[in-house]
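anyone seen this seq b4? input:
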Amino acid sequence: MSAIFFYAGWTLLPNLVTGWVQSLYYGLTIRAGDPKPQPGSPRWNTHRRRIQIVVIAAYLLYTIVETDWEIRRAGDFYQDLGVTPDVDDRGIKSRFRRLAALHHPDKISSAAPDSRASSESYFVHLKQAQDTLLDPTKRFAYDRFGPDSTSWRHCSSVRDYLLLGMENAAPYYVGGGVFMLLLGWTGYLEWGCYWRYIIFASLALFEFSTITRPYTLPVLTSFLNPLISKLTAHPPYVPFQSLILIRKLVLTLFIAFSQLGPLLSEPAPSPTPATKPASAKDHEAQQLSRLAGLTAATDFEATRLLGLEMSPFAGDDEGLGRVRGRMQEWLVQNTVRADPEVRDAVGRVLVRKRREGAPQGARGTK
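predicted toks r here
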């Protein structure tokens, strides 16, 4: 079920959040009344592409942090005992004796049955942690395969644990490799296809090295865990926890690349010198199309602004009629009569009327 939510989140959330962020961005950066970029325009597409890249990168980081939080919440035997992964047998026994003195069922009052039951369960868990970590074979399996190895009843040697662990991991890599090949053949993994195969093969090699080495890889003991312990209060990673985190990281990167690829490889809108010039007819058609779009946008904004100005008169038919009458009068006075041809025509009519009504021989009638 969690995997379904994971894929559904990557399918729906980036586009949905991008729309919200873009609307919020326009609301904060564009003043009221100023025109906003219309959907589909070059400026709108550029803003959406940049915002979507930021949203996908942020969701990628959130997914990694969430995976780390889930690993820490699940815990491990070392955290439960309060020791580090490099502790020796003496340290494990000493720590268990201290915890047993606090959480042994005999230390809990019988008047609290719920507390006693909880204490018994926790003490059994601590006893299992001690027994697993004190057994070299079981500790080897636990460090590499996690709590699942404690339920492998038919394994008695390191070889048995390795064979069963690789058998459990094989479907992940075989199925993942076949799935990537099918997506590549169908054209869904065109962007970064080569690097996907390299990363997937590196993950398989890293996991194989982690589970087959008799010691923990130096990259974990000498670099990652000391760095984390120095900078944060994060407990050290056990090898199986690092494998869980890296698997989730690689899977998340693959999904993120499939969405970031088309955005990062989108060609720049500015033409290059090697671009073939369009014909005069095509250029004229493009200009007319831009002019039509600009006219439509201007008409839309003018209608919107007029509606804002007329909003105080909503529901007042008499006031709205007076406003319309005044607007018509203003248009006649400032637009029609201000036209030079209209003024010339009115002047000619007035001169003709004066001549027709004047007495014979009056000045200006000849």
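The two ends are 103 Å apart (CA to CA). The longest helix spans residues 42-74. kinda curious what u guys think
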